[in-house]
Amino acid sequence: MIGHKSQSYSSTTKISTMSSPPIKFGILGCAEIARKVSRAISLSPNSTPHAVASRSHQKAAKFAADNAFPASAKVYASYEALLDDPEVDAVYVPLPTSLHIKWAVLAAQKKKHLLLEKPVALDAKEFDQIIAACESSGVQFMDGTMWMHHPRTAKMKEFLCDGSRFGDLRAVHCCFTFAAEKDFLENDIRVKPDLDALGALGDVGWYCTRSILWAADFELPKTALALRGTVKNSSGVILACSAFLQWEDGKTATFHCSFLANLTMDLTIVGTNGTLKFQDFVIPFEEHKASFSTAVKSGFTELVTGWDPKPSEHTVMTDLPQEVLMVKEFSRLVGGIKYDGAKPEKKWPTLSRKTQLVLDAVKASIDKGYETVEIIS
């Protein structure tokens, strides 16, 4: 417990009979993260796993069996075959980033709604091609940034929007690191230049960048400057890096991302009146509850021996894990398009593109010898 006061919020989701049939998902590839999202698709009340594809029929069949797919689920030995299945409404794509441009575009052209793992592309130019295909086919796009859908995120935003308590944003500091094992550093797709060339910047750095933009109401910074000390492997893939972002009005942000340091998921957001902090911003310490702390107009006690007032902790409960809430929201949007004639929600591709633009600028700064790079939308 932090400080003098604790508040608890509950986000209770009632699972009721859906008025429309569940959205049928196909999964392209059997990556480790696909296990977590497959579970989310099964737990979400408005979706169901319908098919999985791999370049090996045996591998796809094993994935379906290991992840409790329904007996009616289909198994395909090629991604093309799954995309040609007329019953598939949406696809989840956890393929290496270098393959996104091919398979995400083809999925959109086949009129499959697209839940795409992050980073969404190798650069914004590739991402624009993906979104152009989605818009042409009228399909919904969303990236796989799960923490955006946790009810804690909405509750924290309420604090950040409270001018009397938080004030105006002045600074954001973010750190996401984990200590990868030797096998990861030698064999994981995230350290291979032909598969995920952005390395740690595209993986853990994506989350740092998204959190900073979220805190800034998705106002793009004016400039990005990579800080010296970037670590690369022998193939030139980033294993650790840091960056400094600045806006025209003077607010700033820093982040550090790494595959080479102990697991850390810290985010600190500083305003003129208040501060928000939490230590598990990507994956909560616990699946069904998450906390954050706030400090408002803090000062020192007499003789400067303590804080007054002390920070307070706030806990948010949720029946459904954040990845399930992500799938549920995506399926709700897809269902609105399929059954109610709604148009795709443009919010999600817009947020993805802004995140990608910042990553591109940081990567450019590294490549240019740590020059300041202007971010142009």
Automatic annotation (TrEMBL):
Pfam family, any one: GFO_IDH_MocA
Residues covered by the GFO/IDH/MocA-like oxidoreductase domain: 161-276
Annotated ranges, domain Gfo/Idh/MocA-like oxidoreductase N-terminal: 23-142
Gene Ontology terms, MF aspect: nucleotide binding
Position of the signal peptide: none
Family as reported in the entry's similarity comment: Belongs to the Gfo/Idh/MocA family.
PANTHER family documented for this protein: GFO_IDH_MOCA-LIKE OXIDOREDUCTASE N-TERMINAL DOMAIN-CONTAINING PROTEIN, PTHR46368
Protein name (database record): Dihydrodiol dehydrogenase / D-xylose 1-dehydrogenase (NADP)
Organism, as annotated: Salvia splendens (Scarlet sage)
